[in-house]
Recover the amino acids of this structure.
């Protein structure tokens, strides 16, 4: 249980920063528990709700939320979530793990080489 609390704590910090706690949570669950990629992604989705609410409240109070821009992203995100969910449930956990790893690799490389 302590391992799960620590994983949750670290992913919560990253989520609160707006970076995406799933980048910590999903690999940690796959590496340090007996969960497969699909199960880790499912847990990430349910963990996201309360963590996002807390982070949203703090960022809203700080004036970091631009509703005008966010509504269009939310609209696109809803449609994307439907398609992504349908794809995820039809994909083998081993394949999801590979796709997620490639995604994280590209994000990491981009962050290393992007110019400020």
């Amino acid at each position: 249980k302590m391992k799960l609390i620590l994983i949750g704590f670290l992913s919560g910090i990253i989520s609160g920063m707006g970076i995406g706690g799933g980048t910590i949570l999903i690999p940690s669950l796959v590496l340090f528990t007996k969960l497969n990629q699909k199960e880790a992604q499912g847990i990430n989705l349910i963990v996201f709700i309360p963590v996002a609410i807390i982070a949203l409240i703090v960022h809203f109070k700080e004036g970091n939320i631009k509703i005008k821009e966010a509504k269009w992203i939310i609209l696109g995100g809803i449609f994307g979530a439907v398609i992504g969910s349908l794809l995820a449930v039809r994909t083998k956990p081993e394949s999801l793990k590979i796709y997620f790893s490639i995604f994280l690799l590209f994000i990491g490389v981009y962050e290393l080489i992007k110019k400020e």
